[in-house]
Design brief:
By secondary structure, this protein is of the alpha/beta class. The protein has one domain (6-263, 282-329): 3-Layer(aba) Sandwich (Rossmann fold), CATH 3.40.50.720. 46% of the residues lie in helices and 18% in strands. The protein is built from 13 helices and 15 strands. The strands form four sheets. It has an eight-stranded mixed sheet with strand order 3-2-1-4-6-7-12-15, with helices on both faces. A three-stranded parallel sheet has the order 8-11-14. Residues 260-278 have a biased composition (Basic and acidic residues).
């Protein structure tokens, strides 16, 4: 029986997913990679050869995901780790989005997590062990304007994972479910997402490189964390919204709109990835805002952060930098 570690990354050919594939391969895993774009899947396969197995799958299709999971087990071996990372978004006022556009984003960003988790559990439950880690967002706690479908999906992810996690605990399962809540990350999503803003969208500062996100994902895999919060901006929004949600509504109505706009013109006819991949962009982890991105940032256990805030542990509170007034004044938007 093979003793190699096997992982699957859904949404693994670009952005945080690609950085996570790179990190898993470096850690000695064989990796199954799921994405829609065949060209980028071929790039990843060329880069890693027998260390990866790639399948063109739409994560919004539950049957395809279940078949893909079985194919990975047959081709690579029993899956130890499953990473849900696929996403879509649209930078658009809600009232300008057609119902089909909203549903498409939810199908990928939320139902993709549901389908991936279902597929992973269908195989892991028989063995009683496994780790499922989902890439979430600070926007799953505090929504911002112009990304209603994406924010709704990230909120739904938190509720879904909490429910399934409790079911596993009830059943005495050793399968763990974790989520990594990310800040603004320099990924290609800002280069190919549907856009109705006056200028090209940007990750709202502070911006981090996707390798930081990948390090957090691997930490969740290694330590079995329930939730990791990445970057000071996520901490500010999670706790700022918890204390003063009405104030945050008003702050983000102003700052949240402008911080998502870059100073780069948008010709208005660039291709987007809502219904099909943009094949002109390669299988890159990083996007086009690297000059403004940081390589390092906080990675904090969410439960420990809450204990630090609500039980007054001074060292943890100092590390979080969590003065509510400062958080509101310096609000930053996450990925």
């Amino acid at each position: 029986m093979s003793t190699e570690k096997i992982a699957v990354v859904a949404g693994g050919t670009a952005g945080v997913g690609r950085a996570t594939v790179d990190a898993l391969v470096a850690e000695g895993y064989k990796v199954g990679v799921i994405a829609r774009g065949r060209d980028r899947l071929a790039e990843v396969a060329d880069a890693y050869g027998a260390r990866v197995m790639t399948l063109p799958v739409d994560v919004g299709d539950a049957r395809e995901m279940t078949r893909a999971a079985s194919a990975f087990e047959e081709g690579l071996g029993p899956i130890d780790v499953w990473i849900n990372c696929a996403m879509l978004t649209s930078f658009s006022p809600f009232d300008r989005m057609a119902p089909e556009e909203f549903e498409r984003i939810v199908d990928t960003t939320f139902l993709g997590v549901v389908n991936g988790t279902r597929a992973a559990l269908s195989l892991m439950k028989a063995r009683g062990v496994g780790k499922i880690v989902t890439v979430g967002s600070g926007l799953g706690y505090r929504s911002v304007p112009w990304q209603s479908a994406y924010c709704a999906s990230k909120h739904a992810i938190n509720g879904f994972l909490s429910s399934v996690r409790s079911e596993l605990i009830h059943n005495g399962s050793e399968i763990t479910i974790g989520v990594v809540q990310l800040p603004a990350i320099n990924t290609p999503q800002f280069d190919w997402a549907k856009n109705r803003l006056e200028t090209r969208p940007q990750p709202a500062p502070p911006i981090y490189q996707p390798e930081l996100a990948a390090r957090a994902v691997l930490q969740a895999v290694r330590d079995g964390n329930r939730e990791l919060l990445v970057g000071q901006s996520v901490l500010q929004l999670v706790f700022g919204d918890m204390v003063l949600p009405d104030v945050m509504d008003r702050v983000l109505a102003r700052a949240g709109t402008e911080q998502q706009k870059s100073d780069r013109p948008d010709p208005g006819d660039r291709p987007d990835n809502l219904h099909r991949p943009v094949e002109s962009i390669g299988a890159n982890a990083r996007g086009s805002y690297g000059d403004s991105a940081q390589d390092t940032g906080l990675i904090v256990d969410g439960d420990q952060a809450r204990m630090g805030v609500f039980f007054g542990l001074p060292l943890v509170a100092l590390g979080l930098g969590l003065a509510v007034g400062s958080a509101i004044a310096k609000t930053r938007l996450p990925r």
